[in-house]
Amino acid sequence: MTEDEAWTLIMPVAQSLQYTFDSWEDLGLNHVIGGQFWSLEQSKARGGVTEKAYQYLLTDAASPWLTIPWILDLDSVVD
Questions:
Q1: How far apart (Å, rounded) are the C-alpha atoms in residues 22 and 24?
Q2: Could you read off the pLDDT of 6-62 as tens digits, one per residue?
Q3: Residue 70 above 90 pLDDT?
Q4: Looking only at Cα atoms, what is the longest distance across the chain?
Q5: Which end of the chain is less congested by CB atoms within 10 angstroms, N or C?
Q6: In percent, how much of the chain has pLDDT > 70?
Q7: What end-to-end distance do the CA atoms of the chain give, in Å?
């Protein structure tokens, strides 16, 4: 797959996520809750890995969640 082909598949999903969620935090929290809803037992067995990653992305200065704005003109990203 070429880079252009990949972007053709990625951008509609990115736009849908941006439309559906209010922020990186909202997206991440919904991911955490969705995983727990899908399988609380597996979430517990993994030792809270998803929750720890969520907290890291919310707080680490180098996190893309803190360095890339949620409200971003996605049409201009690939052009």
A1: 7
A2: 999 999 999 999 999 999 999 999 999 988 888 878 877 887 899 999 999 999 999
A3: yes
A4: 44
A5: C
A6: 97
A7: 18
Alpha-carbon distance 44 to 69, whole Å?
A: 31
- Which stretches within 1-79 are classed as H helix? 3-20, 24-38, 40-45, 49-59, 64-67, 75-78
Rounded alpha-carbon distances, angstroms, from residue 8 to 27, 35, 59, 73: 22, 27, 31, 16
- C-alpha distances (whole Å) from 75 to each of 26, 42, 43, 54 are 22, 38, 36, 27
Tokens linked to 66:
């803190």
